[in-house]
Amino acid sequence: xxxxxxxxxxxxxxxxxxxxxxxxxxxxxxxxxxxxxxxxxxxxxxxxxxxxxxxxxxxxxxxxxxxxxxxxxxxxxxxxxxxxxxxxxxxxxxxxxxxxxxxxxxxxxxxxxxxxxxxxxxxxxxxxxxxxxxxxxxxxxxxxxxxxxxxxxxxxxxxxxxxxxxxxxxxxxxxxxxxxxxxxxxxxxxxxxxxxxxxxxxxxxxxxxxxxxxxxxxxxxxxxxxxxxxxxxxxxxxxxxxxxxxxxxxxxxxxxxxxxxxxxxxxxxxxxxxxxxxxxxxxxxxxxxxxxxxxxxxxxxxxxxxxxxxxxxxxxxxxxxxxxxxxxxxxxxxxxxxxxxxxxxxxxxxxxxxxxxxxxxxxxxxxxxxxxxxxxxxxxxxxxxxxxxxxxxxxxxxxxxxxxxxxxxxxxxxxxxxxxxxxxxxxxxxxxxxxxxxxxxxxxxxxxxxxxxxxxxxxxxxxxxxxxxxxxxxxxxxxxxxxxxxxxxxxxxxxxxxxxxxx
Length: 503
Hints:
The chain is α/β, with parallel strands linked by helices. The chain is 37% helix and 19% strand. The protein folds into three domains: 2-207, no CATH class; 209-270 and 487-503, no CATH class; 273-412 and 451-482, no CATH class. The chain has a six-stranded parallel β-sheet. A six-stranded mixed β-sheet has the order 9-19-18-13-12-11. A three-stranded antiparallel β-sheet has the order 7-20-8. The radius of gyration is 26 Å and the shape is elongated.
């Protein structure tokens, strides 16, 4: 995935470098698939920058001009230009390391390693087959895949019709910067890639930091909703008997249009039964240093560890809630890490402690044996720093995907609790008719339901980031299920409420 600044919906007279790179990436994808034997398969690239058809037409015109120039340079090397060297640079810089990593992450997939020489031999053949088409209600072009039994190679430029309706066969590159403030619209537009046998390593998405941030929020809201569905199913309830909740967004991202929300109301729901983890960090001075000092002081206050695990990880038990509250009152969290807001967490814990809940805490300081830098002394303990790949990195922000290693979340369970959480996980897996190997590890939602309402879990992950003097202090808080928990904003609807609209 490539992240670029948003591009205004204007009439283009030239293409931004990000879109030129995306076109080159698509040429490489088509050539690489041919080198793997997928010669007669469809290949598609999506370009969606605006819903305005006039702008789409201008974009299509400039893209065609740029692509025709690239193709001429590839067909006639002596005519000048550096298109082939640009492709080689992109291949070495992006495709080689990405393919290697994907093969490691997906060993079960049939992803054949490729040499540049294999790909180079197919580049001209692939480029000669690529067409540029404008797909919208005003254009005459169409995606007639059925009329191309030998495979269609197309750069499709359009708007709503393209992003929300048509199926793009063999979609491999998406250049997508059209924004919307509605969950449902973004999810419809976000159907970029499905299962891609033999070319999962070739998929590329070019988009904006803002869209990545919004999709991360939607993914979290969707994950919470799935957990609710599992809980409903495990209790034998139906949608008519249970009200579904969808987490709202703090900065005005809407679940759907106002006229579609008539059957909903804003309610409040809490941290109960959830895990809050930092995935975004402010890296401008002095925040990293100040947070490091706050966490170091907290760890030092814990005294001698209860136990030491693999890789020098330290565990503490029976930690006073007051220390945890003070930690979160002193720590600074990024506004973009909205689910792990230190102020909200400290207020929540204080509220529960007043109700004689969350009074007893377990703490884990995670250490890595695979750290590529020298260990760091934190609170008197030597710790191997972790690495987490940045999804968005700017001068002021560092954002990652998942922070938590799932096995850390059950560190405070006894054998009986672990077995019960695993059995509930397996029961849900069987009742849903899932296929494949039965789970051998408990899911987070059932781990949190085994923990007593008095017991909280704090996981601390010191992260090394090149160029930053002190490690970033990532954390996750695993909250037990508490039916009397204080609440945060959600939108609520139900099947019964929807039915009432039409009575």
